[in-house]
Amino acid sequence: MLDFLGDLRRTHMCGALRAAEADKQAVLMGWVNRRRDFGNLLFVDVRDRTGITQIVFDKDSNAAMHAKAGDLRNEYVIAVIGTVKKRDAATINKNIPTGEVELIANDLRILNESKQPPFLPGDKDLPNEEVRLKYRYLDLRRDAMQRNIELRHKIALVIREYLSSQAFFEIETPFMTRSTPEGARDYLVPSRVQPGTFYALPQSPQLFKQILMISGFDRYFQIVRCFRDEDLRADRQPEFTQIDLEMTYPQPERVWEVVEGFLQAAFRSAGHDIRTRFPRMSYDEAIRLYGSDKPEMRLPPMTDVREVFSAADLEKFGVHRVLPLLAIRTPKVGKVSRKEKDENKELFGSHAEFNLLDIERIEKSMPEAADQLKGLAEANPDDLIAIVGAKLDSAVSLAGLCKVAGAYRLRLGDKYHEKHGAFNRTGDPSTDFRFLWVTDFPMFEWDKDEKRWNPAHHPFTSLHEEDMAKLEANIDSVHEADSPLGEIRALAYDVVLNGTELGSGSIRIHRQDIQQKIFKSLGMTEDEARQRFGFFLEALEYGTPPHGGIALGLDRIVMILAEADSLREVIPFPKTARAVDLMVDAPTPVSEAQLKELGIQVKK
RNA sequence: GGGGACGUAGUUCAGUUGGUUAGAACGCUGCCCUGUCACGGCAGAGGCCGCGGGUUCGAGUCCCGUCGUCCCCGCCA
Questions:
Q1: Is the CB of A447 under 7 A from strand B?
Q2: What is the pLDDT at residue A130?
């Protein structure tokens, strides 16, 4: 029934034939994308990853083959030997690149059949995601997915080429390792050889890449899978791919140049020319102007209401008016209707161009922010007016308020900003990519649950030279909320694109004495530090050169360039929100025998 | 862990204040058709209304629970 491939060789891909190939013989192989049956004349579109070509079966010229082609159904796999024919002007299909030609079939081999698929790759409507993920192999046949995965390949390729040209070596690091001290939960792999012990899958190759610098490889990169056992989001998968790099003797600017170089190459491969060097903004500035450590730079900065209103004004407007003002009103942005202006006049007098959004609206659209607001107000015996108007000398309060404001502004959504003309778009998609370096992240952040300072990045992050004295002076204040530890700036930086964090990095600590001080400031005894990072502390003692690096999320870069709204669109085999692979149905229970071998009991 | 949306034919969806036999489109099957390219025409098959319980004379529809998918918060560079 079915034919064998034999020694038949494909001559062209299905998207390749053009008028120049007219009258030549061609052998195409691919899937039946669609058939159009006119009785004695049958058209079949054959598809592969490059496109589709129309095949013609004509009963008059070859009755047996026409009959055989009548058995074809969607998604059958076929090989067609035929003659390329230039189409008559009237029958040219301008919608496809191969539309000027068709293949007149001389021979047909049916290489495989297909059951009726739950959906067809050529369907206009997408099935729901559950079905797509269960039949991922069919979903991946869709043109959009083929394009996304191709784009991903191209981006990874040019990044490899660029970094290689800059003297970086791609070096593999272990997947089965011990946990590196980033914040997230680890995926664990039980050891059979040593029952009761576990490997961890890496959240990042952090310590290995630092050790590669100690080992003299000078410049390292890896396009590498990382694992984090945390809840998923549209832009967060439990396994994801990072462009990870590390280099010796760098100032932050040296790292940034490398990143800008490969991002430029990557974006060019996707058809976008971006300009380097990216603008830079300190963390403090980002919080103050955008209320976020990943500013959406297409929006103008927020206005500090203190610059516009007097303390007396603020008192008059009432507590709940102030935050929205800070959040959304920026001079020259948006239009306030006459009606709104009239309403606003009563409240704001000469500042009627400021729009009014009240607390009810915040509560509706962003209840948690309203809670935070209340929290802020509660934290200070004076109300919010006092915080905003008069007592903004407390950095924590201002930052907190700015964050709420920034989050609220974003929550209004792109549509809102679009409608009010807030987006500062150029019309040219290439220049609408607003990259930004956010620099000088704080070294420590206050954990209000544990009532202690924790590393904001990770404990191997170097600090500003000028802040060393501050560290030494406050080395025993890990539990003091108002400790100046919070003012210490790290040599840590993020690269941000249109409000999305693409990557994060830092200059690392290369001196053992400084590393000890950091651990001490975190309340860790020498013994504890040795126990957790002994191998690394030891390595630091054998001539460690200054080094630093960064890691960028490849998936997110591809997602943005593919204009996708979920990572699942650019990852071939992603997991659902509950971290399940619907195609292979993982995770699953394992047999008692397997567990026994590992010395593991599962609670029932 | 919390909040929200959704779940009806292979697929995408509709389904009225609870009321007789649950519909459409695409796909699928058969027949017709020699220039279509989302071909067209005729005929047909196809339903555990996610699952379990409850209210009711009567449940796709109301209530409770549960499972699954998506979005968000917490969490997470």
A1: no
A2: 94
**CA A517 to CA A485: how far, in whole Å?**
12
Spanning CA of A370 to C1' of B61, the rounded length in angstroms is: 37
pLDDT tens per residue, range A148-162 = 999 999 999 999 999
CA–CA separation, A58 vs A66, rounded Å? 6
Nucleotide closest to residue A38 (CA–C1'):
B33
Tokens read off for A171: 């070096």
A104: nearest nucleotide, CA–C1' criterion: B35
In this predicted model, what pLDDT tens digit does every residue of A288-335 receive, in sequence order?
888 889 998 888 777 665 555 555 655 555 444 444 444 444 332 333
DSSP for A203-240, please give it: S--HHHHHHHHHTT--EEEEEEEEE--S--BTTB-SEE
| Distance B30 C1' – A28 CA (angstroms) | 30
Mean pLDDT computed over A407-424: 63
Q: How many CB atoms lie within 10 A of CB A68?
A: 17
What confidence score (pLDDT) does residue A337 get?
Answer: 46
Is A231 within 7 A of strand B by CB distance? yes
Q: Is the CB of A232 under 7 A from strand B?
A: yes
Helix axis angle for A367-379 and A319-328, nearest 10°, is 120
* Helices (H) then strands (E): counts for chain A: 20, 17
- In degrees and rounded to multiples of 5, residue A170 shows phi and psi of -85, 120
CA distance A276 to A561: 17
**pLDDT tens digits, A253-292:** 999 999 999 999 999 999 999 999 999 999 989 988 888 8
Q: Is the dihedral of CA A201, A206, A208, A209 positive or negative?
A: positive
- Nearest of A553, A476, A561, A554 to residue A521 by alpha carbon: A476
Whether the CB of A568 is less than 7 Å away from nucleic strand B comes out as: yes
pTM, entire model: 0.88
Residue pair A455/A461 in contact (Cβ under 8 Å)? The answer is yes
Task: Give the separation between CA A244 and CA A123, rounded to whole angstroms.
Answer: 38
Q: Are A510 and A555 in contact (CB under 8 A)?
A: no
Could you tell me if A51 and A98 are in contact, meaning their C-beta atoms sit under 8 angstroms apart? Answer: yes
Cβ contact A46:A94 at 8 Å: no
User: Which nucleotide is nearest to A442 if distance is taken from CA to C1'?
Assistant: B77
pLDDT of residue A336: 42
As a residue count, chain A comes to 604
Reported as type and span, the H/E element at residue A282 is strand A280-282
Q: How far does the CA of A358 sit from the C1' of B7, in Å?
A: 37
| CA atoms of A226 and A241, how far apart (whole Å) | 6
Nucleotide nearest to A228 (CA to C1'): B76
Chain B nucleotides close to protein (CB under 7 A) are: 1, 10-13, 26-29, 32-40, 68-77
Question: What single-letter amino acid sits at A111?
Answer: L
Q: Give A230 CA → B75 C1' in Å.
A: 6
A492 has pLDDT over 80: yes
> CB of A184 under 7 A from strand B?
yes
Amino acid at position A359, single letter: I
- Residue A149: both structure tokens together: 């995965």
Dist CA A93 CA A195 (whole Å): 66
pLDDT tens track for A542-551: 999 999 999 9
- β-pairing, A169-170 vs A219-227, is parallel
